[in-house]
Amino acid sequence: MNVLLVHAHPEPQSLNGSLKTFIVDHLRHAGHAVQVSDLYAMRWKAVLDADDSLDGAINGRFHPELDSKHAYENGRQSPDIAAEQDKLRWADVVILQFPLWWFSMPAILKGWIERVYAYGFAYGVGEHSDHRWGDRYGEGTLVGKRAMLVVTTGGWASHYAPRGINGPIDDLLFPIHHGILYYPGIEVLPPFLVHRTGRMDSARYDETTAALAGRLDTLDSTPPIPFRRQNGGDYEIPSCILHEHIAPGVQGFAAHLRTDVPIAVVQPEPESEPASSHRLVPASA
């Protein structure tokens, strides 16, 4: 397989930096082709603005959607954007690896999404009518690809449990899983999560990488999160609201999951203290 790893952590010697190296080495040893977009090392420009088009603002003032469309359709995108789009076209699997900062991805990774997901490349495609509202949510330009998040948190797994203080991790990641990855048609695998990064000793690190290896070895076979397809019949068009007979009484994010498809169980996260208090990485891993 062709695997694109998009890595977002500023410190190479952090836990995330170590996991990045492990992911690349493990995949290549297994015979996969790997490209890495190490956003901090690349000094990736995170801000979406008129400079993303070689023609600047085409009508005298910057319009993110229209200027993006013009640049993409006319081959006038900034070269760094076009290069990342080529990587996405090449990839069979995309791995987004990052620490959960303030309940979301680091700003530099969000900026990668905003700039690379140009109009016509990742959105704004397909027929918009009373019968179909674009090729999105299960359809689109990136259909046939798979993606997985590798996410670290400083908090305990229980903090992100269904009744945990930080909110359910599935809900926190829903905007990324459903709104960023599934929107242009990518199948989304359950995330690989590493909690309590400030309490990582060598024994727990070995357990973590062993579990991660198992997930990397099954990238092509792990069942994806069963999101509902927008144009699959579950939603009214063009309102894009679920039909009343679909998931009656269910609201929020859970309503957009099919219940007739089993959901893959991700690896459990140990809650016990590590055997040793020796720390390999800082808490900001």
- What is the CATH architecture descriptor? 3-Layer(aba) Sandwich
Poorly predicted runs are: 268-284
What would you report as the Rg, rounded to the nearest angstrom?
A: 20 Å
Strand content: 5-15%
* Principal-axes shape call: globular
Number of helical runs?
A: 7
Q: What profile does the largest beta sheet have?
A: 6 strands, parallel
| Domains (count) | 1
N/C terminus separation = 29 Å
Kindly provide the name of the CATH class.
Alpha Beta
Number of strands: 6
Descriptive notes:
- The chain has helices spanning 15-29, 64-73, 79-90, 107-116, 169-182, 202-216, 230-234, and strands at residues 2-7, 33-38, 93-99, 146-152, 187-188, 192-194.
- The protein is of the alpha/beta class.
- It has a single domain, classed as 3-Layer(aba) Sandwich (Rossmann fold), CATH 3.40.50.360.
- Strands 1, 2, 3, 4, 5 and 6 form a 6-stranded parallel sheet that branches.
- The longest helix is centred in the first third of the chain and has 15 residues, at 15-29.
SSE order and pairing:
Elements (H helix, E strand, L loop, with lengths): L1 E6 L7 H15 L3 E6 L25 H10 L5 H12 L2 E7 L7 H10 L29 E7 L16 H14 L4 E2 L3 E3 L7 H15 L13 H5 L51
Parallel strand pairs: 1-2, 1-3, 3-4, 4-5, 4-6
Helix pairs in contact: 1-6
State the main characteristics:
285 residues; alpha/beta; 7 helices; globular; Flavoprotein-like_sf; Flavodoxin_fold; NAD(P)H_dehydrogenase_qn; oxidoreductase; NAD(P)H-dependent oxidoreductase
Give a concise summary.
Helices cover about 30% and strands about 10% of the residues. It has about 280 residues and is of the alpha/beta class. It has a single domain, classed as Flavodoxin domain (Rossmann fold, 3-Layer(aba) Sandwich), CATH 3.40.50.
